[in-house]
Amino acid sequence: MVNSPMSRKLARNGGLFYPVIGFALFVTFLYLAFGDLWGLNINRETIKLSFVERNGTQFYVDGKAFYINGWNSYWLMDHAVDYSNRPRIKGILQAGAKMGLTVCRTWAFNDGGYNALQISPGRFDERVFRALDHVIAEARKNGIRLMLSLVNNLHAFGGKTEYVKWAEKEGVALSSSNDSFFYDPTIRRYFKNYVKTVLTRRNVYTGVEYRDDPTIFAWELINEPRCMTDPSGDTLQDWIEEMSTFVKSIDRKHLLTVGLEGFYGRRSPKRSTANPEFWAADLGSDFIRNSMLSTIDFASVHVYPDHWFHDKNFEEKLKFAAKWMLSHIEDGDKELRKPIMFTEFGLSNENEDFEPAQRDRFYKMVLDFIYKSAKRNRFGAGSFFWQFLVEGMELYNDDFGIIPWERPSTYQLITEQSCRLAREHGVLPTQMEHLKNFCASTRL
């Protein structure tokens, strides 16, 4: 299947009991580190965040190299619209902080339809905007930064299809493809207006404009862009150049990425050696070309080998994923001279040969690449699990999502990664005291 798992989202949990320092020690840690999650009483208003900056090939915070152990919870704004759901927002952010995670990637868009942030071009629902305000304010209280995506290439939550529908209602003559989003002047104007409105939004809870808030780690132009009607890549490249320049004209404090899956285009010499299959070169995107622009601060890559192949077993998919990550980290070094972020990775539990142990093996492989990169001060700057939930969110679940603390092996993998990164580059002031103590006790 060439379609991304993004349209399905979220999974049931899985995982093998990965070797740990001792089961008794780990259970004790779970209780101390996580048992008081819902009753945590800490004055987080004192947490101060600095902007994350890029110095060449690395991210920095307060002069220290910053390698990210992060996660995706795309549902934060949508779920926060209903006040009764807001404890779940607090819950997942507190959970992330307790695991030593530092950045959460989530949607800052919902175009048309139910709970739309943008009801129609230039019309916004203040109730939904306040939900996003709440997410940002709550993230700051917990010392978590956010990567905010601005539009979807897919149909979920509106996306570029909704923009095309809006233009058609105004009598704009468009092609049958929703790729008109990338080249139609009217739609480009819609999107620029949206971007400006979001970036200059003043948070009702903090009083800070989004463009001035260091809680936001980075902006992402579009989730998984593809322009299949122009496989040359020129149309998408022009759109990225125009929109990234526009974002930077409003906000030069925050980092910016495209939101790519990482496929190599027709002009790339890697199109036949590194892509999963032949179709990947004809999607209208090109990892190196799209990421090369000076207005793009870092490159993004997704890792879904089980959705890109249908005739390989798990071991073959795992081998490809390792090769895929290594190829892109090398691109950061030899071609882009920018950090490489694996902003989504996951393994479906609907694969015919799926076993819970496979997910932990896949996770560990991804995390090990980032750790080795951090240890050597290299270009693999971070990774983001797809996707974390809390209890009672079955409607948001798909075959990738997990509730991390429900499986000790998975929880241990995540927390150990935070400890390993802390050992190499220090513990950020925003990370929990219990994490520092745990990392010291386990000598990770």
From TrEMBL:
UniProt main location, coarse: secreted
Transmembrane segments: 16-34
Reactions catalysed, as given in the entry: Random hydrolysis of (1->4)-beta-D-mannosidic linkages in mannans, galactomannans and glucomannans
Known EC number: 3.2.1.78
Gene Ontology biological process terms from the UniProt entry: polysaccharide catabolic process
Entry GO MF terms: mannan endo-1,4-beta-mannosidase activity
Alphabetical keyword list: Glycosidase, Hydrolase, Membrane, Secreted, Signal, Transmembrane, Transmembrane helix
Residue span, Glycoside hydrolase family domain: 50-388
Signal peptide: none
GO-annotated cellular components: extracellular region
Family note: Belongs to the glycosyl hydrolase 5 (cellulase A) family.
Protein name as annotated: mannan endo-1,4-beta-mannosidase
Organism: Anisodus tanguticus
Lineage, top ranks: Eukaryota, Viridiplantae, Streptophyta, Embryophyta, Tracheophyta
